[in-house]
Amino acid sequence: MLLNGLLGSRYSHDIAGRIACSSVGLSFAAALAVFADQLQTGGVREVVAYRWIFGGDLNINLAFLIDPLSCIMLLVVTGVGFLIHLYSIGYMHGEEGFTRFFTYMNLFMVSMLLLVMGNNYVVLFIGWEGVGLCSYLLIGYYYDKVSAAKAATKAFVVNRIGDAGFLLAIFLVFYNFGTLDYVQVFSHAPDIAGKTINLLQLFGWKWEVSVSTIICLLLLIGAIGKSAQLPLYTWLPDAMEGPTPVSALIHAATMVTAGVYMIVRNHAIYDLSPVAMTTVAVVGGTTALFAATIGLVQTDIKRVLAYSTVSQLGYMFLGCGIGAYTAAIFHLMTHAFFKALLFLSAGSVIHALGGEQDIRKMGGLKSKIP
């Protein structure tokens, strides 16, 4: 990423592509090694890379958590990401911003790896915001195109709505637990089971809601924005303005899976709140049906796949809402691979047809794609 970002203009596109793909390929190899080690040893391990923020009660390390969930996400992100990077070399060949494209793609991967490997909410939030920034840069890759610039801005703004809820949830977690480390928070989660907050105290009225419910609903707002659920789904179909490899990366392996991952990661808190669990299930089920219905009448091949993604994410949220976390992650993993292949296949068809994306004009493809 740094080589392409700082020195990319000094060497050819072929070298830039090889550097980008090699870095992701090495990450995938490392993920396989970590996964194999996890299978043998099991358990949960924390790796502290740097003691970052400390003072008073606040102690935050740049540290990583190795457990079954993070290992699965590592394989999905690096495996699918590597295939998309390889595909991008041919797809983006001849583009003026070739090196810039791969710099953004690598930054996207780094942000997603921080998100899934961090052992505390601060590292998670840094990766979360990094993914949002990269989506803006990649969706608006053709920045001289008005529709692409508007789509990038829309994705950025809509995600900030969700991020506001996520940030409030982090503040509440620290206020109630005195730490932001996953292991400590989740081990003490039962301690807040009976704790409530009067939301209308300022007005002299009484409406007490459990702390766990408030935290979970605020986290859900962040997940809804990032994973394009109702009502914050509108940015994802417009994200098709970016190059096809970007669509594949956002829809399959990175950005939209972050919300599902966050809910599963925080399952210890969600299990304390039936209200939050029911809300997650209702949002997911409604989105699954709503998005699939819209997708039925689309004519743009990439928008059809976009609404399919929103619908499938709804099923994952539904799984989380009924407590089937393992099923939700299994669906996330399988969806990442087949949806990436669908987008890359769609990109090949679009390329062969000279940029045509209307499925009504795609008859007789055998003669154009033998």
Description:
The protein has helices at 2-7, 13-41, 68-91, 98-117, 121-139, 146-177, 182-187, 211-226, 235-238, 244-253, 257-265, 267-270, 274-295, 301-321, 325-352; strands at residues 45-55, 58-66, 196-198, 208-210. Helix 3 packs antiparallel against helix 10, helix 3 packs parallel to helix 15 and helix 4 (98-117) packs antiparallel against helix 5. The strands form 2 sheets. A two-stranded antiparallel ribbon has the order 1-2. The two termini are 36 Å apart. The model has no long low-confidence stretch (mean pLDDT 87). Strand 1 (45-55) and strand 2 form a beta hairpin. With 370 residues, it is mainly alpha-helical.
Spell out the key features of this protein.
370 residues, mainly alpha, two-stranded antiparallel ribbon, globular
Distance between the termini: 36 Å
Strand content: 5-15%
Structural class: mainly alpha
The number of helical segments is 15
Quick recap:
With 370 residues, this protein is mainly alpha-helical. 68% of the residues lie in helices and 7% in strands.
How is the topology of this model organized?
Blueprint: H1 2-7, H2 13-41, E1 45-55, E2 58-66, H3 68-91, H4 98-117, H5 121-139, H6 146-177, H7 182-187, E3 196-198, E4 208-210, H8 211-226, H9 235-238, H10 244-253, H11 257-265, H12 267-270, H13 274-295, H14 301-321, H15 325-352
Antiparallel strand pairs: 1-2, 3-4
Helix pairs in contact: 2-3, 2-4, 3-4, 3-10, 3-15, 4-5, 5-6, 6-8, 8-11, 8-13, 10-15, 11-14, 11-15, 13-14, 14-15
